[in-house]
Design a protein that fits this description.
Structural class: alpha/beta
Helix content: 25-40%
CATH topology: Collagenase (Catalytic Domain)
Order of helices and strands: HEHEHEHEEHHH
Radius of gyration: 18 Å
Distance between the termini: 37 Å
Number of helices: 7
Strand content: 5-15%
Largest sheet: 5 strands, mixed
Bound molecules: zinc ion
Number of domains: 1
């Protein structure tokens, strides 16, 4: 596994340098959705006070309703991602969809958020487009900190393109709930950036910068460069390095039955991005908020 991780990061580093840009990807294949119009749906299951007292997935007593989450999502789409002339992207406000309690209670990965690795939980695989749900599982957000506002992973990836991404907003603690509406919109906008394939930007003047997320109310030049690279307005589809194999010679221990050859390294890097955000929010939030 170590060799696989090293390979993933090496490739990522080389690819990043070769591109000559600052933005990063949420995966090591520069994967993006292979269609122009992407719908963002919200799970209709309420988190406020749900499963009270349960040690694994008790929710905070207060949380916005699914309808409010959908309304804020639409504002995030319009504030950030639908105003870019250099991309082919068109994000669409979806609807409340009935996903039951699975997405409220489920773990994003089979491992805990602090484990450093991620095998995506196939029970939460998003069949298409982007799904947002509140979620309260302690292994997604920890049990003693309130700093992780959300976690995002493109958890449906066919080896070439992203087919579905999942955004889980922290309903276990009150960190997200206590934000203003404007800050919530900005956090949702940041998470949608991850769902589209973007990683964190090292450029501070960016929505995809790893901290100060709630206060950031417009895209920066690096966000624009990144999203325009993934979704160029004048390019044909499917140019996202789909022919590059990332399979390591030692990848044979992968037992994930639904994984293609690229999936393990893809999700490892995605998860490191998530964990990194978690730690920054956990330790850096007081400095920036
Ligand atoms: Zn992030």
């Amino acid at each position: 596994m170590f060799k696989l991780k090293a390979f993933s990061f090496l490739f990522f580093f080389v690819f990043h340098i070769a591109l000559g840009h600052s933005f990063t990807f949420n995966n090591n294949a520069a994967a993006a959705f292979d269609k122009d119009e992407i719908t963002v749906n919200v799970n209709d299951t309420d988190c406020a006070g749900a499963d009270s007292g349960d040690s694994n997935y008790a929710c905070n007593s207060d949380f916005i309703t699914p309808q409010k989450l959908l309304d804020l999502t639409e504002r995030a789409i319009n504030r950030f991602w639908n105003r870019i002339p250099t991309t082919r992207l068109n994000l669409v406000r979806g609807s409340l969809v009935s996903k039951g309690n699975t997405f409220r209670r489920g773990q994003l990965c089979n491992e805990s958020y602090a484990s450093g690795t991620c095998t995506p939980n196939t029970a939460l695989k998003v069949s298409s487009d982007i799904l947002i749900s509140c979620n309260c599982h302690k292994n997604n957000f920890g049990d003693s900190n309130v700093g992780i506002l959300g976690v995002t992973i493109p958890n449906n990836y066919d080896g070439v393109a992203i087919k579905g991404s999942l955004i889980l907003i922290n309903g276990r603690h009150d960190g997200f709930h206590n934000l203003t509406d404007n800050e919530k919109i900005n956090v949702i906008g940041h998470e949608i950036g991850h769902a589209l394939g973007l990683g964190h930007s090292p450029v501070e003047d960016s929505l995809m910068y790893y901290s100060n997320i709630g206060k950031r109310d417009h895209l920066g030049w690096d966000d624009l460069d990144g999203i325009s690279y993934l979704y160029p307005s004048s390019q044909p589809l499917n140019l996202n390095c789909g022919t590059v194999s990332l399979k390591s010679p030692n990848d044979s221990d992968s037992s994930e039955s639904n994984s293609g050859p690229n999936n393990t390294s893809f999700f490892l890097l995605s998860f490191f991005s998530i964990v990194f955000l978690g730690f920054i929010l956990r330790y850096g939030r007081r400095r920036f908020f």
